[in-house]
Amino acid sequence: MSADTLSRTLAASELETLVGTEVGVSSWYLIDQARIDAFAEVTQDHQFIHVDPERAAETPFEGTIAHGFLTLSLLSAMGVEAQPKIKGATMGINYGFDKVRFLAPVKVGSRVRGRFVLARLSRPKPQEVDIVWQSTVEIENGKRPALVAEWLNRFYLEGEADKSC
């Protein structure tokens, strides 16, 4: 799939033809200590392996690591950057995850990026499109990905969207 194709806005029927295809790869995101500390502050997760470089240096990680949920939360930014847009979509929401696995720690100073395979697409209602993305967050020069997830999104198309969500 070319970058030109992915930068386009596609009708749901066009997008459906891409099921099973990797449709986008994001740019690299630096996971520095400032980002980790900011996430710790927002989530109140101050476990030493994330925020105390001296103590974390004494662990098998040999330094601080990103919170798994920090890495997971970057899927939103990565997805906006890498996934094709849907023609007529007025908004999209995170609908959930069917599966999330954290496979490798993201050490401070690492860079990560997202890869997205369009796993499934369905139309529960005429103005709704549900998409399941097989999402992988890679660690630059890593042997294993940081995480893999089946990420569910719902998009509402022009017209009256169901307001019950």
Automatic annotation (TrEMBL):
<dbReference type="InterPro" id="IPR002539">
    <property type="entry name" value="MaoC-like_dom"/>
</dbReference>
<keyword id="KW-0456">Lyase</keyword>
<feature type="domain" description="MaoC-like">
    <location>
        <begin position="17"/>
        <end position="120"/>
    </location>
</feature>
<dbReference type="GO" id="GO:0004300">
    <property type="term" value="F:enoyl-CoA hydratase activity"/>
</dbReference>
<dbReference type="InterPro" id="IPR029069">
    <property type="entry name" value="HotDog_dom_sf"/>
</dbReference>
<dbReference type="InterPro" id="IPR039375">
    <property type="entry name" value="NodN-like"/>
</dbReference>
<protein>
    <submittedName>
        <fullName>Putative enoyl-CoA hydratase 1</fullName>
        <ecNumber>4.2.1.17</ecNumber>
    </submittedName>
</protein>
<dbReference type="Pfam" id="PF01575">
    <property type="entry name" value="MaoC_dehydratas"/>
</dbReference>
